[in-house]
Write a structure and sequence with these properties.
There is one protein chain. This protein is mainly beta. Helix content is 12%, strand content 43%. A hairpin with a 2-residue loop joins strand 13 and strand 14. The chain folds into four domains: 103 residues, Mitogen Ypm (Jelly Rolls), CATH 2.60.120.510; 119 residues, Immunoglobulin-like (Sandwich), CATH 2.60.40; 95 residues, Jelly Rolls, CATH 2.60.120.510; 110 residues, Sandwich (Immunoglobulin-like), CATH 2.60.40. Strands 12, 13, 14, 15, 17, 18 and 19 form a seven-stranded antiparallel β-sheet that branches. It starts with a helix and ends in a 5-residue tail after the last strand. The radius of gyration is 40 Å and the shape is elongated. The N terminus is likely disordered. It comes from Pandion haliaetus.
Length: 559
């Protein structure tokens, strides 16, 4: 067996050497280095495998050469060469060295120990370029060859280091490594929505022949189309991800990186790659040739590429990519604000869309009042299209603005949390009739640890210079309820939402001297070693309450 391989490759090596010697002049003193370089390149070129896809890495500005000859004994035979650039455009060409059949025979029968070809043995040889290409598209050359011809493929990248795949086959009867594309390989856009795009494409002939081994994979991104799956995977990796080369083909969950999300739904596998330029989605849907891409952003241009994939060989062919722009998001409905009227708005935390309110001024001076009920809310106010206020609010917030009669104010509200938020809003030109009571410097409730007993707790809170009504409520809670109670507290709800048994007392007080505007209260009749939630409500002239920040206090276990 070793001898048979020796006799197969020996004529090939001799023929290659002869072709090289014929194409290179005898070295002179001035061309010694150039001749050595050519010999180095020759002996470091590789034989291209037949019937197998080969990955070739190219260094910038350094050409790489591969050779192949036809199997001995075949007069004329077809062959194909398919080259797939995986990144930047490359240059590649096919050269043929033609020599006589008698020379090949002499080479095969020559002295086994001879390392060079004599002048009498040298046959006429001529190298000619039969194909060349420059670009980043997948390109296939089909030709006819004789056994006395040596072919050289030369590849060059002038932009940067890159890699390509090359597939050579001389057997055109055993089927195709690459799935076939239809006569019309275009992708048609048949529907566009605000967040969806529907695509369709003609079936690959390979689907009817090898349905169980073929599937379609769709690539969606916001940057550009890709001419091969190899190029797409390279782009994702270059964005900072370690994307396995076979990810889109094998679709193995254990290959996913932390920046990837896999979604399996209705026999469709989607992989979302989070990259610096946005997200790249890979969706494989079996042999369906119509697909609606969901969850897109409105008014955004997307690029769509469909690849038909042979699951047995991991080879793929690319349809002609397309692009589409989703429809603009419809203008949000604007609610009119009425002077003096209070409305409560619930904001969606998942979408974080703006909720819009509009008000046309009937006085030069107006005041917007916002009371945060739950969550976190961003407020943005414009007057005649110009921003006059923008901030995240907490508690109670007033905005006093000056303008002209009939100025148009637009208020936009948005939740800044993933959970829903809510806020009360009022606009009024009647400053002398405030809706909400005058507030103290702080809405915190203080408890005195030293005054705690087994059945009583002493708390204190600040008041104002305006006589107001204060009501205290208590609620018995468990240790694991503390966080939930504090997080879910609705700061806009009044005592009407509380059970009657939770009411402790109501009292009036005020003090002209703000330094002394503080009151204390001792709540008795409590259980030992028990957690209690205390709330204080402040009522102003309008009767709308303001809730102080809840306070959790635990009575002493032993006294």
């Amino acid at each position: 067996l070793k001898m048979s391989w020796f006799w197969f490759y020996r004529p090939l090596h001799l023929l290659m050497a002869a072709c090289l010697c014929h194409s290179i002049k005898a070295p002179t003193t001035n061309s010694q280095q150039s001749f050595k370089t050519d010999l180095f390149n020759f002996y470091h070129s590789l034989i291209l495998a037949d019937g197998k896809e080969t990955t070739i890495h190219l260094l910038k500005d350094i050409p790489k050469r591969y050779y192949f000859v036809m199997e001995e004994g075949r007069a004329l035979a077809p062959f194909t060469v398919t080259v797939t650039p995986c990144d930047v455009p490359i240059e590649w060409s096919i050269l043929v060295h033609k020599a006589s059949a008698s020379f090949l025979g002499k080479a095969a029968r020559g002295d086994h120990g001879t390392q060079e070809v004599s002048k009498s043995q040298k046959a006429p040889s001529m190298a000619s370029t039969i194909f060349n290409y420059k670009g980043n598209s997948v390109e296939t050359y089909m030709g006819m060859s004789s056994h006395s011809a040596l072919y050289m493929l030369e590849f060059l990248s002038t932009e940067r280091d890159t890699h390509i795949t090359v597939y050579l086959t001389t057997d055109t009867t055993s089927g195709h490594l690459y799935p076939e594309l239809p006569m019309d390989p275009r992708i048609d856009v048949i529907g566009i929505g605000h967040t969806t795009v529907t695509l369709t494409w003609k079936h690959s002939p390979s689907v009817s022949q090898h349905r169980e081994n073929i599937q379609y994979c769709l690539l969606v991104n916001e940057k550009h189309n890709y001419k091969s799956l190899c190029a797409a995977e390279t782009a994702i990796r270059s964005s900072g991800m370690k994307l396995p080369p076979t990810l889109a083909l094998s679709l193995s969950p254990y290959l996913l990186e932390p920046q990837q999300v896999m979604i399996l739904s209705n026999s469709e596998l989607s992989i979302i790659n989070k990259v610096s330029s946005g997200e790249v989605r890979q969706i494989c849907m079996g042999t369906k040739n119509t697909y609606t891409v969901p969850n897109l952003s409105p008014s955004t241009q997307y690029y769509f590429d469909v690849f038909v994939v042979n699951l047995l060989t991991n080879a793929s062919a690319a349809y002609t990519g397309t692009f589409a722009r989703t429809l603009e998001e419809p203008e949000p409905k604007v609610m009119e604000l009425k002077d003096g009227k209070v409305i409560q708005v619930v904001l969606d935390g998942k979408t974080q869309k703006f909720y819009s309110l509009q008000y046309q001024a009937r006085h030069k001076k107006i005041q917007f009042t916002f009371q945060l009920c739950h969550g976190q809310v961003q407020v943005h106010i414009t007057k005649n299209g110009k921003t006059v206020a923008s901030e995240n609010i907490s508690g109670l917030r007033y905005f006093s603005l000056k303008g002209k009669l009939l100025d148009t104010y637009l208020v936009q509200l948005r939740s800044t949390e993933e959970s829903n938020s809510s806020v009360k809003v009022q606009v009024s030109s009647h400053f002398h009739k405030p809706l909400f009571p005058l507030l103290p410097e702080s809405l915190k409730i203080k408890s005195f640890s030293k005054l705690r007993t087994c059945n009583s707790v002493t708390i204190a809170w600040l008041g104002t210079q305006e006589e107001s009504k204060y009501c205290v409520y208590k609620k018995r809670i468990k240790d694991d309820q503390v966080w939930v109670e504090l997080q879910n507290a609705d700061r806009c709800s009044g005592p009407e939402s509380r059970h009657k048994s939770e009411k402790v007392l109501c009292k009036y007080f005020y003090d002209i001297n703000l330094q002394r505007a503080v009151t204390t209260e001792t709540i008795k009749g409590l259980d030992a070693g028990t957690l209690y939630l205390f709330d204080v409500y402040l009522f102003g002239p309008s009767g709308i309450p303001i809730r102080y920040h809840s306070k959790v206090v635990k009575t002493r276990k032993k006294c």
